[in-house]
Amino acid sequence: MKPKVTMIAWNQNDNYVVTAVNNHLLKVWNSCTGQLLHDLVGHADEVFVLETHPFDSRIMLSAGHDGNIFIWDITKGTKTKHYFNMIEGQGHGAVFDCKFSPDGQHFACTDSHGHLLIFGFGCSRPYEKIPDQMFFHTDYRPLIRDSNNYVLDEQTQQAPHLMPPPFLVDVDGNPHPTKYQRLVPGRENCADEHLIPQLGYVATSDGEVVEQVIGQQTIDQDEQGMEPSILDGMIRQLQLEQDQRTGADQESASSAPQNGEGTPRRG
């Protein structure tokens, strides 16, 4: 196999260069002479993460698709710390990215299974209040394009940036309690009744009926005379006020045609 470099990183003071090679080795080089100083052995798959410590020139972090996270002393060519990202019942999770905090006391990693791993000094109590599974209910909703090629949410027929803030749900689509919904930007000061999402029932491909967060009423539901969403009412009211202001501005301005495109208005 012809070796190929997959990642390269300079250490904090630029005296060393570390390269990750597709034979799973890390190599430490003298940046002035080009001399190979150390081979760092430990990874069992390709490495695509190399991060230098923000102020300690000896420290380099590496992580790869084998689920291993290493902290190295590159001046000595030795391992300082090692973590293996084993996920119960699913094998290991490949590590896709890692970053140090500015003070160098913590680092965070993300893996192939959607986990955020936080390492560092101190206690983990501040993070324990957060549920294990957090998704927005709109994460996997399909999108469509209108006649002007603008993107719309398929269910609500609204532009994504005009939709109200999404709800937090678990992996099965079940909404979290209201204290977690307030963590979503835009919902910090909402009344409790605005933090309880609407639920609907849909049939899966195998015929099973499951409960899912709807969040907003669809056009079909409005036509059927169902009770409208409070959030949808707020959105429509804001849009109506904006349209009225725009109409007033246009009446007072010149009636000459304007060039350029704008976002289409929708009631």
UniProtKB/TrEMBL annotation:
Keywords: Repeat, WD repeat. WD repeats lie at residues 1-39, 40-82. GO terms for biological process: cytoskeleton organization; regulation of cell shape; regulation of transcription by RNA polymerase II. Residues 240-267 are annotated as: Disordered. It comes from the Eukaryota. Transmembrane segments: none annotated. Pfam families: WD40. Residues 249-261 have a biased composition (Polar residues). GO terms for cellular component: nucleus. This is BRWD1 protein. The gene is Brwd1_0.
